[in-house]
Design brief:
This protein has 321 residues and is mainly α. Helix content is 64%, strand content 2%. Strand 1 and strand 2 form a beta hairpin.
Length: 321
């Protein structure tokens, strides 16, 4: 299953990062242009050209890539039956980011063409080893909470996009369930922070760190707690043991919850006529993309397009003039 770029940022967050590489330089606009083209070609099932577009994106960024984009490139190449190119991207992902989502990679139908290749067993063995290295009781607790969190948010997105059987669930039920999950998680999160501070890469690995951040991001009823975690997270970001991009998201979330302007424009709402998403008010809009680039975020225009694509069921058609 190909991973959506926004899903990586907002919901699934299952991949490891190349933080020290990506955030030490500005990401060129061509990178996002080629990734967008690659994604469109994949959706049209033009897989080889999609893989080539991903290669162009990686080349534009001097050989670097976000981990989800490198994984998606492998999916395109595997679908095109270009096994060497697929393994090249997956091997780089495993080597340089310690990718460890074992359950996802072995069950991903996009990669089925690779299973009979002798390189496959070696690759997944390394992924499994990375996974086992990161597992500990704290990580397991965080992952279990993240699983519940995402289960219901994914259902909500499917509901919005009319991808569920009619009358199978109501939006009111989903909202109450999501609120109940967040409430039940709060005490556990508070205890973790009291004992460990912000769980960094050393304590729970990259994925565990991201999962913890995501759970805090959804604690909008406890803004003081979010503010406390934000301070603790900044300390870890400065030591390169937490992710600068996710710190930007939490910064904006806290600002919105305390009636302040956003810094990075990560928190979105529907516009007045519900034809598109737009950011909640931001500080100095003219320099927004500059600030976003500094923490590894795509342009606001690309971000809005992605939000509209992912939540198409909530949008109304624009009226023709």
């Amino acid at each position: 299953m190909k991973i959506d770029t926004l899903s990586f940022r907002l919901l699934f967050l299952v991949f490891l990062s190349i933080t020290t590489l990506v955030f030490s330089q500005t990401i060129p606009p061509d990178y996002y242009k080629f990734v967008k083209k690659a994604d469109s070609l994949y959706k049209l099932k033009i897989y080889r050209e999609s893989g080539l577009a991903y290669n162009n994106a990686i080349r534009a960024f001097g050989g670097l890539a976000y981990p989800n984009d490198r994984y998606n490139a492998a999916c395109s190449w595997a679908r095109a039956n270009e096994k060497d190119s697929a393994f090249k991207q997956l091997s780089s992902l495993v080597k340089h980011t310690k990718y460890n989502n074992y359950n996802h990679i072995i069950n991903d139908s996009d990669l089925s063409s690779l299973h009979n290749d002798k390189r496959w067993a070696k690759l997944v063995k390394k992924v499994r080893r990375n996974y086992e290295k990161e597992m500990n009781p704290l990580r397991k607790k965080i992952d279990a909470m993240e699983y519940q969190d995402q289960k219901w948010l994914k259902l909500q997105t499917r509901y919005w996009n009319k991808l569920m059987p009619k009358d199978s669930l109501t939006e009111d039920y989903l909202l109450k369930k999501i609120d109940s999950i967040n409430t039940s998680h709060y005490n556990n999160l508070e205890r973790i922070v009291k004992k460990y501070g912000f769980p960094n890469y050393d304590k729970v690995g990259y994925t565990g760190c991201i999962n913890f951040w995501l759970l805090v991001q959804h604690q909008d009823k406890h803004t003081e707690f979010q503010k406390k975690v934000l301070v603790l997270m900044k300390y870890q970001v400065d030591k390169k043991k937490a992710n600068a991009t996710e710190y930007a998201y939490l910064t904006d979330r806290v600002n919105i919850n305390t009636n302040q302007l956003q810094i990075y424009g990560t928190q979105m709402r529907l516009n007045k006529d519900s034809t598109s998403y737009e950011p909640h008010p931001v500080l100095d809009p003219d320099k927004l993309n500059e600030r976003r680039a500094s923490v590894g975020l795509e342009t606001i225009e690309s971000y809005i397009n992605g939000m509209n694509s992912r939540n198409f069921g909530r949008l109304k058609k624009r009226k023709k003039n």
